[in-house]
Amino acid sequence: LVDLHSQIEETEKRFSVKQAERDYWLEYKNVGSKIQANKIMNLEKDIKQVKDDHHRATEYYRNTLKATKEENDRLVEMHMKLCNEQAPENAVRYLDKNSRREIKENEWLKEEIKVYQKEVSDLKASIQLLEEENISLVAKLIDSRLQNLRV
């Protein structure tokens, strides 16, 4: 009987533990799960907001990077152009006096060639006009001689 009595007490203890556990889960089902569901929804909204912010930031940085690359390319191209323009001047500085004089004479000769080419083209135009005038005069002379011969 004592043994049965101790088994009953032990069973009642286990029953009270299980009853407390059942009460906890019923409380969670009725109240806690709704709180947790609200927390989950808020966290999902936060995740969506973070993803949107990340997408916007990524797009902004991508555009900024593209603009920066284009600006760098433009600056490098401008610098290369400037270096290419200054390279002959820098090279001339390191030449001896005779070479510098030859370069200056060469530049002067190029200018003279342009002047002479213009004169040649002007003379060709003058020659063309004179030839046309001569042809016209010769044609008139021949016409007048033909008329004299007919008379």
UniProtKB/TrEMBL annotation:
Record-linked PANTHER family: COILED-COIL DOMAIN-CONTAINING PROTEIN 83, HSD9
Coiled-coil segments on the chain, per record: 106-140
Keywords: Coiled coil
Cytoplasm is among the record's keywords: no
InterPro entries reported in the protein's UniProt record: CCDC83
UniProt keyword annotation of Nuclease present: no
Protein name: CCD83 protein
Organism field: Stercorarius parasiticus
